[in-house]
Amino acid sequence: MFQQDTLERTAEQCQEVSRIFSEMDRTYHRLAQRTGLSDCAFWVMYALGEHAAPLSQKSLVEGWCYAKQTVSSALKMLIERRLIRLEPAAEDRRSKVIELTEAGERFLRDHVEPTMLLERCALESLTPADREQLVRLLSRYVSRLTEETMSPTKRPMEPAAV
């Protein structure tokens, strides 16, 4: 009986976590829409706002878990809007790095940095210990989920014994 109750509660918690992540996705989608950018283009601008140095397309693909073609399409849109430019990388002239234009810097300041401030305010509403725990638990959860999905032949693991 105890194990069945635990399994049912775990299933409910999985649904709640999925709802929370979906709500977060919707929130960021709305924020991107307000800027007139696609979700990926918004995250490209966000990533550029996080880093002082220019970024490579490869680092965006790897760091933000978007498909290369999705990032390429977002970059094309941002170039057309004159928010970014691609420049040859200093270490490898065949590679390109993404840099903000003056218009991109203004856009970042006016539209992306307020999102970053919202995030900080939301986190600051938690105690320092709760913030640490949130980061630690989310990291563990995502790592485990990623681990379980990396192998195409691996079947989902059985629930942990209670």
TrEMBL record:
<keyword id="KW-0805">Transcription regulation</keyword>
<dbReference type="Pfam" id="PF12802">
    <property type="entry name" value="MarR_2"/>
</dbReference>
<dbReference type="InterPro" id="IPR036388">
    <property type="entry name" value="WH-like_DNA-bd_sf"/>
</dbReference>
<dbReference type="GO" id="GO:0003700">
    <property type="term" value="F:DNA-binding transcription factor activity"/>
</dbReference>
<dbReference type="GO" id="GO:0003677">
    <property type="term" value="F:DNA binding"/>
</dbReference>
<protein>
    <submittedName>
        <fullName>Regulatory protein MarR</fullName>
    </submittedName>
</protein>
<feature type="domain" description="HTH marR-type">
    <location>
        <begin position="10"/>
        <end position="143"/>
    </location>
</feature>
<keyword id="KW-0804">Transcription</keyword>
<dbReference type="InterPro" id="IPR000835">
    <property type="entry name" value="HTH_MarR-typ"/>
</dbReference>
<dbReference type="InterPro" id="IPR036390">
    <property type="entry name" value="WH_DNA-bd_sf"/>
</dbReference>
<keyword id="KW-0238">DNA-binding</keyword>
